[in-house]
Amino acid sequence: MTTMTMAKAINEGLRRAMSANDKVMIMGEDIGKLGGVFRITDGLLDLFGDERVVDTPLSESAIVGTAVGLAMRGYRPVCEIQFDGFVYPAFDQIVSQVAKLRKRSDGAYTMGIVIRLPFQGGIGAIEHHSESPEVYFAHTPGLRVVSPATPHDAYWMIQEAIASDDPIIFCEPKSRYWEKGEVNVEDPGPSLFEAVVRREGSDVTLVGYGSYVKTMLRAADTAATEGRSLEVIDLRSVAPLDIDTIVASVKKTGHLVVVQETPHMASVGSEIVSEIHRRCFYELEAPAVIVSGYHVPYPISRIEDEFRPSVDRILDGVDRVLGFGA
Predict the structure, then answer these.
(1) Residue of 24, 104, 246, 313 with fewest CB within 10 Å of its CB?
(2) Catalytic residue selected from 128, 129, 255, 277
(3) Residues 10 and 155 sit within 8 Å (Cβ to Cβ)
(4) Where are the domains of the chain?
(5) End-to-end Cα, the chain, rounded Å
C-alpha cells in the first residue's frame, strides 16, 4: 500500500500505461510543459518526450478529431479536456465519430480513446468550469462513462480505460484531486464497470458517483449517530450501469436515495430510479428519491454550496423515504 492524492494516482496510472505500451500518448491544452492546469500530467513530458506528450492548440474538436485518426492507426490517445464545460466544442466529434466508428467499420477499427474530463464543482469556479455533462455521453451508444472516487480507483481505472478497445469518457471529480488515500499498486480490485459497496447498511441505500461518494459517506456517519444505517454504493461506472449491485442492496433496505450533481431530469439518477422501481417494485417500501443539483446553469461561486447536494440535503432525502406514509 502507498498513500497518494487522486491527482498523483492518475499521473502514476498514466505513467505506468505509457511505460507498458509505446502506442499510448497523451494530448491536450497545456499538458506538456505546464503539466495541465491541475498538474495531472506533470513530469510526463520529461519521461516520454514531445511526440507522446503533445501540447495542442486551444481546439477541443481538433484534439478529439486528431485522436480519432490516431486510434485508427493503432495508437491509444488519451485526451485531456481542460474543464468539463469545454467539452461541448468536441461534442460532434465524440458522438458522431468516436462513439460510432468501431460499429461503422464492423470492427475493422477500434476506438481505444480515453477522454479525460475534470467534472463537477466544488472548487469555487463558474459555469464551463464546474459542470456535469456525463449524462450526454452516457446516453450515447458506443461510449463508456466512468468516474473514480478514490485514489486507488483513479490509479487502476485510468489504466483499464486505456487498455479498452471502446472509447471511454473518464470523469474525474476535480474537487477530490488533492485528497489522499491508500493505493494498492498490486491489486486493482473490482473491474472497471463494477459498482462497489463502500459502506454496509440496512435501512436506506445511497447511490452516487464521483465527488459525492465522500459526501454520502459523511451523511452515513451522521445518520449513524441518529440510529439509522445507510448503505453507500459507489457506482464507478455510469455507462454501463451496474444495476444488479443496486438491486441487491435495495432488496435488503427497501429504500433508495440517489445523489448526483447534475439536474435530475433525464439523468443517471432518473435511469436508476426507473430501473429500480421496475425491478424492485415489491421490495420498495417508499418511492425512491433523487437528491441533485437544481435545473439551472451552474451558479457563481459564493452560492455553489446551495446548489450542490450536501449532507443535510441527502439526510432530508433519507427522512423522506423513511417517513413515507407516516
Answers:
(1) 104
(2) 129
(3) yes
(4) 2-183, 196-322
(5) 48
- H or E, element range at 257: strand 256-263
What lies within 8 Å, CB to CB, of 323 at 6+ separation is none
Its CATH class, for the domain covering 2-183, is alpha beta
- Burial (CB count within 10 angstroms: exposed 0-12, middle 13-18, buried 19+), residue 91: middle
Pick the CATH number of 196-322 from 3.30.360.10, 3.40.50.920, 3.40.50.10540, 3.40.190.10: 3.40.50.920
pTM, to two decimals: 0.96
196-322 matches 2-183 in CATH topology:
yes
Contact between residue 203 and residue 177 where contact means Cβ atoms under 8 Å apart? no
- Respond yes or no: is residue 129 known to be catalytic: yes
Question: Digits of tens for pLDDT over the chain (326 positions)?
Answer: 899 999 999 999 999 999 999 999 999 999 999 999 999 999 999 999 999 999 999 999 999 999 999 999 999 999 999 999 999 999 999 999 999 999 999 989 999 999 999 999 988 887 888 999 999 999 999 999 999 999 999 999 999 999 999 999 999 999 999 999 999 999 999 999 999 999 999 999 999 999 999 999 999 999 999 999 999 999 999 999 999 999 999 999 999 999 999 999 999 999 999 999 999 999 999 999 999 999 999 998 889 999 999 999 999 999 999 999 76
